[in-house]
């Protein structure tokens, strides 16, 4: 009996094949949505760590519970200002990194 070889592929190869190569419009949109999904999950985890309800967090930053719910489910429509207000209200330290040509940009 002959064994069949199973071809394995990496996640990056699967993304390239089924979503598109890095730099294509579809792939860029996918990567953006993925980052926004992760950001929403981070907000939810930090809120729960602080033992706050969505309504309580909303009151801290001046928005309705529904807006916090939308933000946690996907941060796509959130502005940077709103995201900063949320993390500030949660007393959470956040950092942003900018990378150009393989090197991080450092502020003077």
The count of domains is 1
Write out the strand line-up for the largest beta sheet, numbering strands in chain order.
1-2
Estimated structural class: mainly alpha
Q: What are the low-pLDDT stretches, counting only 5+ consecutive residues below 50?
A: none
Oligomer: single chain
Give the integer mean of the pLDDT values: 87
Question: How many strands?
Answer: 2
Q: Span between N and C termini?
A: 67 Å
* CATH architecture label: Orthogonal Bundle
Order of helices and strands: HHHHHEE
CATH superfamily label: lambda repressor-like DNA-binding domains
Helix content: 55-70%
Just give the CATH class. Mainly Alpha
The shape is elongated
Main sheet characteristics: 2 strands, antiparallel
Spatial extent as radius of gyration: 19 Å
Number of helices: 5
Task: List key phrases describing it.
108 residues; mainly alpha; two-stranded antiparallel ribbon; 5 helices
Task: Provide a descriptive summary of the structure in words.
This protein has a two-stranded antiparallel sheet with strand order 1-2. It has one domain (11-104): 434 Repressor (Amino-terminal Domain) (Orthogonal Bundle), CATH 1.10.260.40. It has helices at residues 11-18, 25-49, 54-61, 65-73, 80-89; strands spanning 99-100, 103-104. The mean pLDDT is 87. The protein is elongated. The protein is mainly alpha-helical and 108 residues long. Helix 3 (54-61) crosses helix 5.
């Amino acid at each position: 009996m002959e064994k069949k070889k199973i071809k394995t592929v990496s996640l990056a190869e699967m993304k390239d094949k089924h979503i598109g190569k890095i730099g294509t419009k579809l792939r860029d949109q996918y990567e953006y949505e993925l980052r926004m999904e992760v950001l929403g999950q981070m907000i939810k985890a930090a809120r729960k760590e602080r033992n706050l309800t969505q309504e309580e967090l909303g009151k801290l930053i001046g928005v309705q519970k529904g807006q916090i719910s939308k933000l946690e489910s996907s941060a796509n429509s959130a502005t940077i200002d709103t995201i900063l207000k949320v993390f500030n209200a949660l007393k959470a330290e956040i950092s942003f990194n900018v990378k150009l040509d393989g090197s991080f940009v450092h502020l003077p």
